[in-house]
Amino acid sequence: MTTVNEMPDITDMAGMTMPARYVGRSIKRINDPQLLAGTGRFVDDLSLPGMVHATILRSGFAHGTITGFDASASGALLVLGPDEIAAATSPMPCVWLAPGQRITHTPVASRTVRYVGQPIGIVVGDSRAEAEDYAEQVDLDIDDLPSVTDSGEAIVAGAPVLYPDLGDNTIAVVHAGSEQADIDAAFSGAHRIVERRLRIQRIAPNPLETRGLIARWDAGDERLTVWMSTQTPHHCRDHLALCLGLRADQVRVVMNEIGGGFGAKEHLYPDEIMVCLAAMRLGRPVKWVEDRVEHLTATLHGRDAVHHARLALDADGRFLALHSEILGNLGAHPSNVGLGPFRVSAGMLPGPYRIPVVGATIRAVVTNTTPTGAYRGFGMQEAAWVRERMVEETARELGVDPVELRLANMLEPGDLPYLTPTFQNYDSGDYPEALRRVRTMVAARPSRGDDGPRVRRGVGFASQVEFTGLGPSKSQQIVGFALGGYESAMVRMDPDGTVTVSSGVTGMGQGIETGFAQLVADNLGISIEHVTVRLGDSERDPYSATGSIASRSMTVGGGAVVTASRRLRERILAVAAHQLEIAASDLVMLPDAVGGDRISVNGSPDVSITMAKVAESAWLNWDVPETEAIGLEERYTYNPEDISFSYATHAAEVSVDLDTGLVKVEAYWVAHDSGVMVNPMICDGQILGGIAQGVGIALHEEMRWGEGGQPLTTTYLDYVLPVAADLPNVVIEHMVTPSPFIPGGMKGLGEGGVIPTPAAIANAVANAVPEIAGDLLETPLAPSTLWHLMSAAGLHDD
Amino acid sequence: MTASDITCTLNGVPCSTRADARTLLSDWLRHERGLTGTHVGCEHGVCGACTVLVDGRAVRSCLMLAVQVDGSEVETVESLGTTDELGSLQEAFRDSHGLQCGFCTPGILMSLTAAEREGVSVADAAGEVLGGHVCRCTGYQNIRAAIEAHWGALSGGGNS
After folding, report:
1. Domains in chain A: boundaries
2. Which of 81-140 (B) contact A at CB < 8 A?
3. Architecture of domain B88-157
4. What ipTM was reported for this prediction?
5. Do A721 and B136 touch (CB under 8 A)?
6. Are A199 and A307 in contact (CB under 8 A)?
7. CATH number of the domain located at residue range(s) A302-471+642-792 in this protein
8. CB–CB contact B138 A209 (8 Å)
9. pLDDT tens-digit profile of A19-39?
10. Cβ separation of B101 and A259 shorter than 8 Å?
11. pLDDT (tens digit, 9 = 90+) per residue, B67-85?
């Protein structure tokens, strides 16, 4: 399935080269056994003495005012309503602010409700079932107000206004990329302009484990400990302290295993603050676990943007300019990241192409829907949808092969590094090669069976560049994203020669624990069996402002691990050299999982010292060079030089049933480059999982609202997730262009799988049914949608 | 609250207790019996994460009441192996990277365990049986690979 390129040996800072025993190999994941045996520690698996259970009261109205909240008839252990919660908490700050953003904070609770699912209170009982019984006894009056859920309708004169003080629903208008005058000039001088209105639907992230937490307040030392399903324990710690009026050193957030995140668990939610407040009031641990119906309305959604896009070309089919007017739906209030996804769409609009002028104007509006925020692909999937459909439509208008059109406009390896008009500094790689490789794979495909004239087949391509490894702190400051972009690693060898690495990034199923163990083992020169990885505890682990988001754990976090490990290795060698009375440069590491790791004289394996002996003496501070620091512990904080850019081309082959509108993805090919692959098996897994979520976007998933702003898709019978039959076996080829600056050479790949998938599938449908190609402007391409398009195109007339 | 006696066999061990009539089997296993390997993903019978075996048949434990297993034999993921000594199906999942976050995995393992005992073909195990589960992480490809490897290793070349 996979072409695994030979991994380079590791060269350390002293110029010493050693073989990569683990990096580049598909090592089995170190934390799989407990997950397979059912002994993982997901938050709902934990139980504390005296623990009680909460349920959250939520608005059943899309827009309204709470005029009555009476819990006097409830037998609950505790009920907190919006007034008490608001009085006890500070509003939650938006983390990523756009210039001129008119709302910058969100109250934890309020008497104004603006979406179905908004948390308005908390009820606590001895069990979850009791808490839900007591919740029924709370007398809640809400005066209904007119609502609006569609972003286009929200900006029409006379639309219901969510925040009357603001006068309208527009929260910010932001321009990105080339100057408007340059955009105007490029379009006025163009030989041809292709123009389309493209839409990306609302998605619910749906990790299989919903959100949840247990909060414990220790009155004696006035400390709050929170076990939580989160991707960002330090960030949640900081915001819990802020919103609850505590000092940061009074709050500890711990995450163990989490059942997926996909962006949905990258920050703190108001209902989570309510649970902590309840624990503080009761003096007893309180558990709350979101149920699936709640998840579909109370956890941030992704996407929901409309692009009015224009592509300008010269007479030779060269791209001159790309511009999009983006209308983004923020939901009921700007989330922690607010306009972030729409801004990233603008930034990544150019993709792998040489386009001299690229710009976007973003208008972000509030509606009576769940707020939108991070979801795997974060603006990049939307950008790829718009760009790759535009390229395909352009090829169709010109009557040229879409692959040739792409190749003619694609950045060549010699063009890199390349600063796009949207200020992305592409680092390295061979973008056309990825496309050519996929074209070759597609050409070699077997012919499919003939299902008669009413089933058509087609192939579609899509190319992308992925922004990974967020990011230098300075870049985050420039765009107003108030989180530091560095990561730290602590690598410690204990007196028995075993090693513990800890970092502020988190494992959420992506396998970062195994990747870090591989990096530590190779860069130290020990066996992987002697490495333990510790992540997810805000008190124990190095501070991480940004946490595991934005495909950054292996790049930024891994970069820190590589450097810390190499530095520790130098110190181990210095102690060993002192004791063996030989130069450190004459020593080699001899990893040995069974007999114990050793250090020996190069060429004389019998002259050696055990790692345990070196470690013991280092911690005794006996027989060590006087210039050496005591102990064997290295902490390194890495702030990357720049963003790392991975890239890929995908192709899908689909069948389309003209009579039912059913699209089936029959084959799928990928050529992908994310730099050095620490664990190719895990890299493939990330790509495959991303593609599955892309198939969901392409064909099935959509959050929809009906009359009165009521959500229509609140169970898995209505919100359709991809199942096994939706996914063919994918063929992946890897290219490896090491990052020019990340220690270890990795680039990120958490999101690359999902980014081009919907566009590749839609392009394949367009190829299969050219009669409707120009109408394939929004996802999902559900059977009913396609059936209607094909009917209108006269495909059902016979 | 109405409570009833439950006498059953749980992972091969006799079990006698009382449970509230309204307690779901999934909640009873997890919170009363401490068998937290059974996970609850949707609580409405679609995702399959909570699948356990009752008298050998794969059931959604979120759609059953605990009192319904009175007189039955119940098996959960904890019966398949331990962290130190995984069962062969579990090993196949590990070898093929058939799991990422691992939240849906116990339910899939239980459905496949029932399928294996029933002599279901590898094609049906990777199709029909896996089709009853939602996995948000893997894209299913590596789960199919695990199923194929495990079925292939079964004695007599599999049950197909």
Report:
1. 2-39+486-638, 43-145+210-258+265-298, 302-471+642-792
2. 81-84, 86, 90, 93-95, 97, 99-106, 109, 126-127, 130-131, 133-140
3. Orthogonal Bundle (1.10)
4. 0.97
5. yes
6. yes
7. 3.30.365.10
8. no
9. 689 999 999 999 999 999 999
10. yes
11. 999 999 999 999 999 999 9
